[in-house]
Amino acid sequence: MIVGLYDIDLFHSSKFYPNLELMKVFNYLNKNNHKVIMMKPKENEGRFNKIIYFKDSKTKIPKDLIISGDKKDYYGYGFYQKAYPLSPEIAVVPPSYVPYDPYAYKIKNQDFYSQLKKSSYIRFETKDFSDYSK
Fold it and tell me: Over the stretch 40-50, which tens digit does the pLDDT of each residue have?
């Protein structure tokens, strides 16, 4: 299955940090052998089996962005004045910074992003989490 992830805050507002929920969903789907692609604005939606939208700020949803439909889902805060949390099995998955690496130039606070990424003990590339403590 090909899944598209779309960060509304990244493309339609001032983004200062990556979306934690998006990174968890990316890692969860990738580990379950799905092809996961970070979508861009105006990308062809027909190529995706499922599209997931993320929003965690007061960014307004652009009028030309249709987030409803059979193969579309959304997570975060500010969708229809309600919070849509992750499912419990996805919420416990460690985040991955991989989807944000190609778009790091869009994050205005580069120093914070680099520091956050460097100080993270859990990475997508890490296969053994036995040394990780909460």
Answer: 888 888 899 99
